[in-house]
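Today's session is about reading a structure prediction critically. Students often jump straight to the picture, but the first step is always the sequence itself: look for stretches that repeat, for charged clusters, for runs of hydrophobic residues. Only then move on to the predicted structure, which in these notes is written as discrete structure tokens rather than atom positions. Here is the chain we will use throughout the hour.
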Amino acid sequence: MLAVAEQVRVSAHAIPFIGRANLWIEDSVVDGTSIEFTQWLMQQAVAGTHPGQIELTVFDDQLTGLAAPFMGLNAGGEKLLRSIHDTRELAEFLAHLRDHVHGVNAVMQGRSPSLVDFRAAIGHPVESFKLVVLATDISQLGDAEQNALSVLLRSGPRAGVSFVIHSSAMDVEWMRDMCRAYSIRRGELRDGDGPVALAPPAPAAPELIATSAEVAARLASTSIASVPFSAVQPLGATWTASSGDGITFAIGRFGRDVVEITLGDEVNQRHNMLVTGAVGQGKSNTLSLMIHGLCERYSPAELELYLLDFKEGVTLQPFFDAASGEYLPHATVLGLEADREFGLSVLRDLHRRYRERMRTFKRSGVQSLAAYRRARPNEEMPRIVVVVDEFQMLFAERDRISERAADLLIKGVRLFRAAGIHLVLASQTIGGNLQLMGSAGDGLFGQVPVRIALKNSLAESRATLGTRNDAAAHLRAREAIVNVDYGDLGANRKTNIAYADEAVLAPLRRAWWEAARARTTAPYVFAGEAKRSLADDARRLDELARLSNGGAGIPPVVLLGLEIEVGGRTLEVPLAREIGRNIVGIGPGDMDAQLVSMTLSLVAQAQRLGPLRLVVLDGAPEDGFWDAHSARLEALFARAGGSAVQVERVPRDAVAARLVLAARETSTAEETPTTIYLARKMDRCRDLGADLQTLVRSGPTAGHHLIGSWMKLDAFREHVGYGGDAYFDVKFGLRLDSQTAKQLLGDPLLDWKPAENRMIAFDSATMAEPVRVIPYAESP
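Below is the predicted structure for this chain, in token form.
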């Protein structure tokens, strides 16, 4: 069992101390020996108690400097020393101690006479000890502070809270029965009956400083006593639970008891959960415990997971291994490095799932998943748990994405419960978003009864648990306040969070995958930073090629990239022989890979198109694009379309003349092959005149389509003439600034900021609004 300084010895005299008694030390006023003795007691407390198991708080309005040599205690990674500077802060701290004592008593449940005995009985550390040193005249404190102190002096030691009061006289009568009184006179330690021992040697400041440094070093090198995963989630009964009436998982211990949380039961109506915690306080560990605990109890037929991470995605990485093919069989969606657009698409997909389930319930004459499962016990309908880490990133900007996400999220927490869809929202910070917080019961958090608050700031504790509930501000690492009653103070349970050990969890995941891979499919994995190539859409290209054999009359389609939505649909635009079926990209981004990939997606359908000409209008021959890529491009074209594909390269100084021919071909009644004009970096071309305008206006109906790029919108509009951009149904922007994107796409309310590996695209003939896309950033 971890050591605690429950008594200290001065020669043969034993002084009951931490967790056993309170001490009053008479101020010697002149010679300072009482200050030295008080510091010796503080030294014995921190040196005689296991590192990290005692916290020292000092209120010194006598300016004795009691705490000064102990400042190094906080160098070990936890705040073991706290200094209180005024009576207002003291009053707040005493109020916290009152709640703390109440919480410790709730943990012990009367099983032991004190925290010291309780910890010894259960064999592992629960709660922590506190030493409060008050160097003040108690009689000068306000009535409220004295009343609070009198209660704490009486009940504190049993709960591990001991006081040392350094004062000139015990002039408050009620203190006499609550403190053991000592004084130092003529080198002797005296109690109320007289001398008991020689005073201990006065510790010099360097000695106290060294003790503090040693304790901090021991704390930094000592592993935190942890609760193993198997202690809260027994292994061996895998997938034996039913989710029909709710789902239950364990996350830690509250005293002797395992803390379990149930979502979805129709009795208590707890359907959604909030998890908060400052950086490094164990939020990822807590989410991992929850996910693995659920997956151990419930099979993929009982539980389905949507998992999103709006930071670096490390928490979710173990759930999918592209190299081995191993995946978490319960997962439907994994949002690694998820961004706001993908988060919004997940919310839309969940509302779609909700509507589907409610239609199913209506046909069956029931109103909830629980009732449906009871009525049709042989039919599968798993509960869906949606875990969103750093969900606040959805609302990082005040724009339409934020407004839509907030609307869908707030509606979801109110509606999803009937369909067995549960939201678990996690974040380092939730303060400041008034739209989500709302008034009582109106906002998002008013619909989230289960709160898990790891250590955080005072403000974040109150944002999570309620304006009067600051318990999370006083936690240590791997502790959390678990509250299942909307943050009500009386429902706080200070829980020792278990440890999600990868050495234990990785074999579990492999066993789950081995058991379920024959009847499950891998989740859709969204890795928002991964570069994309046309080769990633090879399956779709094969489908288009097969369609070519029997798809006469079906227009070819151009692939633009991956839409940012659940399922990862490739964005496709038809290139029919209709007015306006041209494509233009605007912006300073690297357009070449995008233009080539889009053109190659057409080449894959060459058999249906018949003879196909590719005319490369090269607006920047000096950059070496053609020299670097011509042989490879021609080989790719030949492989895709055989001899039916002809490639012609036109350097910048010949572009104007080639457009004269193009305009003439579109004006004649003679039949010409389907022709794709791949126009790159056209800003650098001059004197294109009416021939370009004729091509884009009349060409598509004759099977002549322009796929081109300009860096600047003004240059593009100058080339195509007034109203000419209306003949480009399909427009996209790469690295395009917000204002220009609005002008290009004709949407004054468009929310768009240029970003790496992102494209904004719009087909005015087939889309209701612009979409975000991961473009083709690499040539196939």
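Discussion point for the tutorial: The longest helix spans residues 340-364.
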